[in-house]
C-alpha cells in the first residue's frame, strides 16, 4: 500500500500524524490511498497509546478529492456503466466516510492547502479543522457535472449548516481560509509554517483528558445528531454509565476534590 505516511506528532503526545502522500496528484484519491488510510485508522484505533490523529496532506494541497484523469478515462474506480459505477462508489470511496464515522478517536484535519471536492468532504469528516492561511475550500462537483458521491453533501451541511452548504454546493464557489473560518468550516486559521503545531495543540488539549470519556463523548456527539431527544438521552445515560465506572473517572473526581492534576490511563 502506498500514497500515505504515518508518524508520531513531533510535539503532541499520544498523537499520530497521517499524511496523504500523493503530491503530484494533489493528494487525490487512489485505490491504494483508500486502502492505506483505512489500514492506518485501524492501526491507530487498536493502539492504546494513540489518543488523537492528525490528518494532513503532503506538498501544496490537502486533497483534490477524486482523480480527474481517472474520471476522464473511465478507469479504476471510475470505470464501467452507471450500475457498476454506483457499486464502485459504495465499495471504494465510501469506505472512507464509513471508516471515519466508525473511528472513535478524535481526528484533527490540518488543512495545508486546497481542499476541493471530495478533499473538502474528507476535511468535514474529521472532528476538528485547522487551516493554513493559504488553504482554499470548494464543493465544486456541480462545476464538473457531478454530485458529491462520497456523501459530502451531508457532511458539509452538518459542519456549516444547510443554508451555507446549499450556497457552496450549488454555486461551486471556492472560498479562502478566512471565509471558511467565518462560516465555522474551520476552527482556526494559522500561518502555514505553524499548521502542524496548531493541530498538535488541539491534539494535546484532547489527549490530556480521559481517553475512554473522550471516545464516548465523540460517539455521543455523532450519534445524537439526528436522534429523537429520548433516544439521545438514553444514549447519554448508557455512555455515562460506562464512563463513570472507569478508573479514570475515579481519578478525575478525586483530583478535582484534592485540587490536583489527574493522570489518566485509559481504563
Number of helices: 12
Number of domains: 2
Distance between the termini: 33 Å
Mind summarizing the main beta sheet? 6 strands, mixed
Structural class: alpha/beta
Overall geometry: globular
Mean pLDDT: 91
Please name the fourth-level CATH homologous superfamily of the largest domain. 2-enoyl-CoA Hydratase, Chain A, domain 1
The level 1 CATH classification of the largest domain is Alpha Beta
Quaternary structure of the protein: single chain
Rg measurement, Å: 19 Å
Task: Describe, in plain words, how this protein is organized in 3D.
By secondary structure, the chain is α/β, with parallel strands linked by helices. It is built from 12 helices and 9 strands. The protein is globular and about 65 Å long.
Fold blueprint:
Layout: E1 4-8, E2 15-20, H1 31-46, E3 52-57, H2 68-73, H3 82-91, H4 95-102, E4 107-111, E5 115-116, H5 118-125, E6 128-132, E7 136-138, H6 152-160, H7 162-171, E8 174-176, H8 177-183, E9 188-190, H9 195-207, H10 211-224, H11 229-243, H12 247-257
Parallel strand pairs: 2-3, 3-4, 4-6, 5-7, 6-9
Antiparallel strand pairs: 1-2, 7-8
Helix pairs in contact: 1-4, 5-6, 6-7, 10-11
Amino acid at each position: 500500500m502506498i500514497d500515505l505516511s504515518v508518524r508520531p506528532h513531533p510535539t503532541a503526545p499520544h498523537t499520530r500524524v497521517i499524511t496523504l502522500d500523493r503530491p503530484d496528484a494533489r493528494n487525490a484519491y487512489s485505490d491504494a490511498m483508500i486502502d492505506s488510510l483505512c489500514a492506518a485508522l485501524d492501526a491507530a484505533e487498536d493502539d492504546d497509546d494513540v489518543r488523537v490523529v492528525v490528518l494532513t496532506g503532503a506538498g501544496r494541497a490537502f486533497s483534490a478529492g477524486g482523480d480527474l484523469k481517472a474520471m476522464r478515462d473511465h478507469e479504476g474506480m471510475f470505470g464501467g456503466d452507471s450500475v457498476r459505477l454506483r457499486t464502485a462508489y459504495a465499495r471504494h470511496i465510501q469506505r472512507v466516510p464509513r471508516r471515519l464515522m466508525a473511528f472513535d478517536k478524535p481526528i484533527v484535519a490540518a488543512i495545508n492547502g486546497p481542499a476541493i471536492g471530495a478533499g473538502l468532504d474528507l476535511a468535514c469528516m474529521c472532528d476538528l479543522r485547522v487551516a493554513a492561511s493559504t488553504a482554499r475550500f470548494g464543493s465544486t462537483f456541480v462545476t464538473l457535472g457531478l454530485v458529491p458521491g462520497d456523501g459530502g453533501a451531508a457532511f458539509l451541511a452538518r459542519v456549516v449548516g444547510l443554508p451555507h452548504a446549499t450556497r457552496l454546493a450549488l454555486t461551486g464557489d471556492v472560498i479562502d481560509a478566512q471565509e471558511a473560518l467565518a462560516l465555522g468550516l474551520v476552527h482556526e486559521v494559522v500561518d502555514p509554517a505553524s499548521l502542524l503545531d496548531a493541530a498538535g495543540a488541539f491534539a494535546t488539549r484532547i489527549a490530556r483528558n480521559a481517553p475512554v470519556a473522550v471516545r464516548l463523548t465523540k460517539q455521543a456527539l455523532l450519534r445524537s445528531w439526528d436522534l429523537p431527544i429520548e433516544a439521545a438521552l438514553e444514549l447519554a445515560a448508557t455512555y455515562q454509565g460506562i464512563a463513570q465506572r472507569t478508573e479514570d473517572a475515579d481519578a478525575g473526581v478525586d483530583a478535582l476534590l484534592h485540587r490536583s492534576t489527574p493522570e489518566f490511563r485509559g481504563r
